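Lest this sound abstract, we think one record worth quoting, the chain in one-letter code, the fold tokenised, each line plainly labelled:

>
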Amino acid sequence: MAKNEEIRLQKFIAQCGIASRRKAEELILNGHVKVNGKPAVLGDKVTAADKVFVKGKRIVMPKAKYRYIMLNKPRGFITTMSDERGRKCVAQLVSDVGERVYPIGRLDKDSEGMLIFTNDGEFANKVMHPRNSVYKFYRVTVRPSIDEEQLIKLETGIELDGKKTAPAIVHVLEKQDGRVVLEMILHEGKNREIRRMCEAVGLEVARLRRTQIGGVKMGMLRQGAWRDLTEQEVKKLLANPLN
């Protein structure tokens, strides 16, 4: 950022690695941001010379390079960086990264698999924005079985909260007595969407694991472990492998 270049305040906060642009807007609206001693409002622009404070602490554009981390989240951890109730959260699993990073998107407590962390707010915003339609791949074990009608409903969309889910791609990977393993490919990110979709057609989700985001696969990364993404993988995260 050039010294006299003006950028929107929420973008500045995101580039400082404090939060995604959307979360930065919430911080501004909730009165947690000041610029040069005055409460900030949405629409404010700043330069590198301005003094920006978030929750009383001054923030500056980082000199350190951005980090992009892949974590294999185990069950039992919530996707948040802190929890007032003392529950296990993913922050514990990336505490040794050496930079303050935060998750892009989420997995619910009972789900496992691939999560991406970064301190690059612009990148996080691009990955999460609906217009980019970044597909997520899930391996889903359901009970007791599945028929053609249920498959069609999952693929064409299920009505949740008065709105139909976007079409999904569903493949049957394994079929045994009392259980079926599905691959489900979605680009939406509604809360507990897969579990609620399956429940709506009479299926119980026994296990849910995210295996791939965009063009990046989790591979053999062990549960609870993280690693830096390669430069090529960072580019692939915004690529659509289905095209």
